[in-house]
């Protein structure tokens, strides 16, 4: 059976590491079974022996003749185990006594290295393997190695499965369901690709479980199950990471004004086309939208994803930072890897000054600076079709390096809406709430909302409607004007900040108009 490009790439990487005198390879992942399968294929092609260890089953030599022999065997039930090898220290002694060049997959072993004697024995084994060219592969969800061992280890980043691996997994499930006649499979080849596209960003196990559940729930597997899979996918991403997932949505999103931004985006979208690739044009990297709070920056991110028919991933700054050392960086790397695995996609970083800004200083041990540096490096080097939309309210907290030309494709400024834009915003929010704008004095409302942001106009409409319902009468211009006049907009309460932002934007940024 021919292997996909993604699987072949992982195999080549692992085989190269094994051949290049790396005595310890550490793989931080929850996809233990995927690592097992990769190592079994890699060692079989290289003619090396493969051993697997866990505390429950001890050390086992893996038979290459039939990789599925013990698939359903209870844990620990094996005919090729080594006596007393379940104990970590005994395991290392057993491995050292073997006169075999091989690969030893140790599951959840890193935590045992906190014991000084086990760490010492492990270090001696690593020194021996540096000469014999045997390899220890550590696998676990989290791998923290003592300082004296860390320099001998090579951490391998096993990325989430690509569409080729997912396609192979779906094909296996479909084949199994057809053989067992448990469900009615109504999936054509073109439907398979839709299913696979909906599964990107999941582990192989999650993908198998979601597809199987969708099929068994109603006894059928059809193209209509894509929506069910997307709903489950949104739950998985939000439960297990720092990203919020918004599936692709064909429903248009009203965005008042922003004519200049819309025109720029129409040009930029061409960068994702095959024609652009044919002339060696790279896809656009992203944009930074700065402006006054409540003027539609967040709405713009959602509108862009819908217009481009791409999934939207929102980076949650509150979940990004963790109290434990190293966890925040790991969260960030996981978020970026997830975004890349779902490409083409839109990554939305709301209020970037709060997650990657200057507000941390030295108080957080330099964490903010490290995270910011990682983000800049990724933006500079990324090759995946991930379009970044970053928004910012407070420029004083945005690192100046982020505003330098070339970091983003363009930096846009969102000002308070003008008369024409306020008219559009009023019409949008009145119509959305089943009110007829023509029954109101729009000229008076436009004049009264001078200096209001889009969010403030929306809130005025909502508050006036509440009052109208309470008074049991239709919404009238007088009632809306009463609410508007009682509202003090940000343009007044933070006049100096608004003026300063406008002055900077006039010199350095492009207007969304």
TrEMBL record:
InterPro entries named in the record: AAA+_ATPase, AAA_domain_protein, ATPase_AAA_core, P-loop_NTPase
Protein origin, superkingdom: Bacteria
Signal peptide start and end residues: none
Keywords noted in UniProt: ATP-binding, Nucleotide-binding
Every AAA+ ATPase domain range: 283-418
Gene Ontology molecular-function annotations: ATP binding; ATP hydrolysis activity
Coiled-coil regions listed in the entry: none
Family per record: Belongs to the AAA ATPase family. Highly divergent.
Name of the protein this chain belongs to: Uncharacterized AAA domain-containing protein ycf46
